[in-house]
Predict the structure.
Amino acid sequence: MNNRRLAFFLLGFGVLVIQWSIAPSLIFMGVHPDFLLVFCVSLGLIFSVKEALVAGAALGLVMDLLNGRFIGLFTVAYIAVGFLAGVAGQKVNREIYFTPWVVSLVGSLLKAFVILLLLKVGGLAYDSILHLKSWLVGAVLNGILTVALYKPMMRFRRWLMMGLSPLEVRGPWV
């Protein structure tokens, strides 16, 4: 395994640990942040569609296995988010602060919509109107987190590309 894959694996594992240990205690208006979504959006914007799709599939599958209820529900949702972020990263200027927030906001709503759609197709009754407020609050919260964590992810990218230590990397967003 090369250094880049190892770095992605360790970072993804760290995000997964944060999602399952710290995120449930960080509650804002009844919603906790989705660090996995923030990670997928950041990867898609900063790196490429491929990295975002792989991260979304792997982390979504682990989330499905840990939840133990519906295998594939989170996997499909995070793959859709990773694809959206990867395509947006190729089409828009990702150096603007507004871009990660908008992509994360749309990605959060896309994830909620995909999960709702898969539950409806599966024949499960789910009242989406009751959860609309929590989806919107979660989308805004994830957008704020994406903007806050975007600068360290840009530093991580430059570190991977240049082979420097993370403290030696300088440039825009750093």
Residues 14 and 87 are 25 Å apart (CA to CA).
